[in-house]
Amino acid sequence: MASHDQPTAYQHDSKHAEEQTSHVDEDALLTGNDPRIKAIKRKTDIRICGLLGVLYMMAAIDRVNLGNAVVAGMGVDLDLKGNAYSILILVFFPFYIVFQAPMIAIARKIGPRRFITFIVVAWGIITVGHGLVSTWRQMIALRCVLGILEAGYFSTSAYLVSTWYIRREVAKRNSSFYLIGSMLGGFGGILAYGLQQMDGVGGREGWRWIFIMEGVITVILGLPAYVILVDFPEEAPKSWKFINEEQAQLVVARINADRRDVDTPPFNWKEYISYGKDWKIWFFAMNFGFTSVVNYAVAYFLPIVLRNELGFSVAAAQCLNAPCYVFAIILGVSESYFSDKYNIRAPFFLFNCALEVIGVCVLGFAKGSYVRYFGAFFIVGPGFANIPFSLTYQANNILGQWKRAFCSATIVGAGGIGGIIGSLVFRSQDAPAYRPGLYACLTAVGITVISMCTTSVYFYSANRKQAQGKRIIEGDPQFRYTY
């Protein structure tokens, strides 16, 4: 089997693409100035990035609505004593981590349109089930299944985006679908507050209606994905007349002009796993995983901290996290625009890390509820903005379709490990100061700084040697790292 760590000459499909686009020079392909390319990108921005953002909104809501449900009374009704709440959070992640690699391999095999539609509808049904349980132990099984289903979504989405755009276009798209979804998901507290007003309807408590209605909404939004979403570029002409064969080959030609890795060899499990020998993948995973520590800690515990420690009302505790996510999308999309424009990633990532440190210190050590709440903006905003930067950084520096799939699964799996850590660091016995949680967040940020600096220095050195003709990067004489 030909390995894409050692890219070969264009194979049949790539040659066909080159023949059909021979009248478009490489500069036009890479800059996207050709009107046909602009038209295709407008379509993909809506049908891929837009839809993925909407569906990720429901993933974000369905995954972290436990905090809102506890504030609405679930903790009392299900007798969540001791570590019960942490257990409910924790059991999701082992399944989310373990099923990353097989789920993205299945998505590559059957196509993202069918795959994403199925898992979204399925996890919507599972979310409904959360509102029907009579004990918190019954909810454990549902959290495990939810972890399996959601394992396939984010890594497949990031992988799909990377197959449609050249490297200099990926940051804006990753930021758009992730941050739009996160921002809308941030309004989950407001939605939860509204749904809990159904308390007593059908003889069910308000917190149950949070799960039931959010699950129903997920199913309703998931079903149209089968028609709207598109598959990989070479398969797109089959996706409900999205683009024709010539347009698909134009996209393929762009990708080949940028990184020459469109061709997908037959799947080989042994070789797929062997990509784990590349040390850089694990540094990419650290960037994503330790950023996720902070993000999950905030997502699960910010409503509780706002209610119990800063003294805000139930309504305020569920709603005040939404402005933080609005700030996240403003910051992240703005940064990604300039990141793509100047083709740099690490400086923006490191700047956000500095903001996170400020945010943790203000939230944890300042005086006054509103001042501490202001600190939450500088945790949520840069923390969530760094997730798409982590995705873009790894996507820009990987060659080969299956290696790209493996890397996407690995870093999102690392995000699951970050979720485990984030779910454990803010313990009820540490209230009101929560010092261990704060120190854990600061440590996580420090590790990502070290990881990003290590790989960026390596990439800079490798690019210099490549420019001097002393090195071939990733087996491709024309490939250069992005940092």
From TrEMBL:
Q: Which GO terms describe its molecular function?
A: transmembrane transporter activity
Q: Name one GO cellular component term.
A: membrane
| InterPro entries cross-referenced by the UniProt entry | MFS, MFS_dom, MFS_trans_sf
Per the record, where are the segments of Polar residues compositional bias? 1-11
Q: Which domain of life is it from?
A: Eukaryota
Instruction: List where the protein spans the membrane.
Output: 46-64, 84-103, 115-134, 140-165, 177-195, 207-229, 281-306, 312-334, 346-366, 372-393, 405-425, 437-461
Q: Where is the composition biased (Basic and acidic residues)?
A: 12-25
Q: Where is the Major facilitator superfamily (MFS) profile domain?
A: 48-463
Where are the residues of the annotated region Disordered? 1-25
Q: Which Pfam families match?
A: MFS_1
The listed locations are:
Membrane
Membrane topology, record value:
Multi-pass membrane protein
Q: Which UniProt keywords apply?
A: Membrane, Transmembrane, Transmembrane helix, Transport
Query: Per its record, how is this protein called by name?
Result: Putative transporter
Q: Upper lineage ranks? A: Eukaryota, Fungi, Dikarya, Ascomycota, Pezizomycotina
